Amino acid sequence: MKPFSLVALFLFLSFGTWNSQANGEVFRDRTAFNAASQNLQTVDFESITPLDLELSHQVDSIFIESIGGVGISKTNGNTVLVGSTVGEITRITLFLPPGTTAVGCDQFVSPMIVSTSTGESVTMNASDGSSFVGFVSDQPIQSLTFSLDFPEPTPSALIDNLSFGQRHVGNELPIPQLLVSSLTGRAIALDSVTKETEPFHVISSRNLSSDNHTRLTLFVVGVLLQPSDLPFITARAEDGQQHVFDLPCEAATRVNNVSWMSQVTVRLPDALVGVGDLNVSISVRGVTSNKATLRVE
Q1: pTM, 2 dp
Q2: Which residues make up the CATH 2.60.40.10 domain(s) of the chain?
Q3: 86-95, pLDDT tens digit by residue?
Q4: Which of 124, 189, 219, 275 has its CA 20 to 30 A from that of 16?
Q5: Is domain 177-296 given the CATH code 3.90.1150.10 in the classification?
Q6: What tens digit of pLDDT does each residue of 71-119 get?
Q7: Rounded distance between C-alpha atoms, residue 285 and residue 297, angstroms
Q8: Alpha-helical segments (H) within the chain
């Protein structure tokens, strides 16, 4: 086993499988967008240190790329994200957190074409009377792109109050999603003490517990968990013979410095010694996540 860093974690996140055809809505009013969304996190860039133009940057683990360079600066009294023009072409792409199905922002330069990886697109014009654009989809929105190659001189992109989360349909509770590696298709799970990856062992001398049992950290999106949510969280594992094992949940919280991700700590019981591959899932308030595979030896 090797230690696994959170930087590597953010590079290889994914979850589940989805239909190829997306159904989405476009919003030009933030109030209507908020009503169609849940678990929204907003980056207003005010707390981000201003920087000169770079080809890429990271804010709250959102990766941002621009062909003309991206910066953060004061504009008309606001601190905004700037995507600069190069060769009369403006293009800035925001790679969104896993599990994002709702995203919106204020965009202060028009005209500008704003589009999502799920296929929705809108051209923002000064005559619209709105500087806000939002998208809600039944499929994961992996990226948001701002682009323009007209008129001349082509304006830079000025973006503020980036909000992202999940769509909200009726009285449906948010669906938790366990994160898996896009490279292996297996669970993103760490030994809660050593930060090592699979395979795990039920008993280990390298932990902080008196019972010597290994605790695993599972990473979750789609729900924003706090310690007070622990009584409403359950975890289970299923082996190749469809035997089901309860995994006692001992802690739940948000991941430090990553507003959109939560983590759940579970204990491996004695019954899992040598069991091999397991499909793990969690439930939050009765809503069950996808299944993610990990190995216990």
Answers
A1: 0.84
A2: 177-296
A3: 999 999 999 9
A4: 275
A5: no
A6: 999 888 889 999 999 999 999 999 999 889 999 999 999 999 999 999 9
A7: 31
A8: 6-11, 30-35
